[in-house]
Amino acid sequence: MERPIELSLEQEFSLISFADQVQHMSREQAQQFLLQLHKQMIIRDNIYQNLLKHQWGLDSILGSV
Question: Has residue 12 got a pLDDT over 90?
Answer without folding.
Answer: yes
